[in-house]
Amino acid sequence: MADQGAADPGNNNNNKPEASEGTIIKVTVKTPKDKEEIAIAEDASVTQFKEEISRRFKAKQDQLVLIFAGKILKDGDSLSQHGIKDGLTVHLVIKTAHKAADGGSTSASSSTSTQAGSTSTSNPGTNPSTTTGSTGSAPPPTQTPNILTGFGDLGGLAGLGMGSANFMELQQQMQRQLMSNPEMLSQIMENPLVQNMMSNPDLMRQMIMANPQMQQLMERNPEISHMLNNPELMRQTMELARNPAMMQEMMRNQDRALSNLESIPGGYNALRRMYTDIQEPMFSAAREQVSVRNTSLHSYSESGAQPSRTENREPLPNPWGPPTSSNPSESGGGSTGSSSTTAGTTPSVSNPLGINPGSLGNGMFNSPGMQSLLQQISENPQLMQNMLSAPYMRSMMQSLAQNPELASQVLMNNPLFAGNQQLQEQFRAQLPIFLQQMQNPEALSVMTNPRAMQALMQIQQGLQTLQTEAPGLMPSLMPGGIPGIPTGGAMPTENPASSPSSAGTNIAQQQLMHQMLQMFAGGGGGGGSTQTPEVRFQSQLDQLNAMGFINREANLQALIATGGDINAAIERLLGSQPS
Amino acid sequence: MDQTDSYPVKLYVYDLSRGMARQLSASMLGRHIDGIWHTGVVVHGKEHYFGGSTGITNCPPGGTLLGPPDSVVDMGSTEVPEDLFKEYLTSLGESKYRGANYNLFENNCNTFSSEVAQFLTGRKIPSYITDLPSDILATPFGQALRPFLDSMVINPGGNNLAGQ
Q1: Which residues of B are part of the catalytic machinery?
Q2: Does the residue B154 lie in any domain?
Q3: Residue B106 to residue B120: CA distance in whole angstroms
Q4: Does the keyword field hold Protease (chain B) (predicted)?
């Protein structure tokens, strides 16, 4: 089959098409490192081609493997058989004589040094038996033999995703896996091996200190190294890590303590500083999904004028409650001079986004685009976390906050807002607050909490439905009457009297609405609501629980009686007059 | 004729923005892009891709932090056996695709996938993927962000194969 070209390999030369009828074609031969153009007769055989190549690339012919269009060119074939024509590219791999050289030795050496006790952490619950190390470095089985294949068939472990070469890699991998699978953390914690290790504070300290980011962090904040050196504290932290419920408790306490700080003049700045110095590097240490090499981005000054907040006078406003008119007036002063009173709300602790519940119904969050965005966000907490904690995001927010012009430009081009003047107005007014809030760590933690986002969405939906069903109920909230987009909410036809499109402020309608609400609350869904009150008030129940009202029955009753209004429910529970 | 094995080759495509690009790109960039694409080539039972700082890495298909791919493109099949392929990757990893050579615009995961796909099957990957950097750079927003995007690397996580 191979006799198209001359049988004598020496016959074919670069330049002279001796004894072959074909024309010379120029074929590009490409190796991973190199590229050469080779002229060869059109009807030459692969062998001849390889000859030429071996001369050019200075390699032995039997080391050459030619690939074209996914096929390996065998010596017996001819070029034209494979359709190799002038100007086409053929791939070449030059087989090295010893595959053992690369890859094997380096991974072996680095792994042996890191075996000392450190590999156990890198093997979360999935692989408790590999304490004798060597997991990290076993290369994929088809690779060359190295020291570690002697340990038995640990080569297969590489497939578990543990095949990286050194401890840092392992750590990073583990972090990544942790991020992608939240349950893994609890699994890990339950692994007795891990627990054992965790109860040894020395080891933990060593491990933590070995992480370069931690080291950086420690340089910046010597307090952290103090903390690490205090065994008592370490043990407590370990306990916490082991027990997620306790952890949440503590976080909550901390949050509340922090929020008290907020109302002290200058407190906001201190908080901010704290966040910048401590949390942010920890975030970036933990979330290396998208890493920014240029760390100068981190240096942002203590900008953002402290929002002119005086002491927090109002009782923590209830973002879930029915929108009251008392809200806008107080906040009107606090917000940055926005003329539309309903648009702004003084950002405060429990309402970190400064969202006036009234405006939610017809505000920027109303459009379907935003809604689906929110839905996505609540479905994928990872997204939000990543988005917000990426350092570049923060500095972008920073610059946006400093330059409201830019921000409004960016946002005005957003097709969600285009064509809707009112939305634009509102949004523009809210913009500075909004942006500042984006930087408020409280806000960030709300946004990263999927349940919170879901709760917010539920609020919106509820409000929207309210709007369509009984627009008369909220006359103050519809400047210009932007109709809400109905979301097929849970407030069905129990209110036949008020037509959805009527915008009139009809007292009778309001009363009817109130009655309906009572009935609704009392009957627990008489008109065809699809959810039991327990489910509907789930988030409120959680809130009450968190506040310390542990009697679920009573909570539920109170919530039902007040129609989901937490503040009123609390007052009810405390025995005072319902408002 | 002796039979050579034929190994299927697939291209796993991921949208790094998880759909946000589709929604926000028109407003932020001024032009619509469907996603920020990351790709990996799946052959011989493993997914291979080029990540910043780790270089060429492989992992079980769909095993990166990104989870399962958003779409899978069938690239055909190849005769290249696994050990030969590994050699090839090693060579690549020592030359053009070292971890340090990662450049988000010019030498990124998609460049790698394109080259590997070409090698394995002779076909290129869909152009909407390889055109992405130039599409973005063509917008003023992209230009403005360029200096800082240049320093970004994307690394979905896996285990290290070659060339560092």
Answers
A1: 38, 109
A2: no
A3: 21
A4: yes
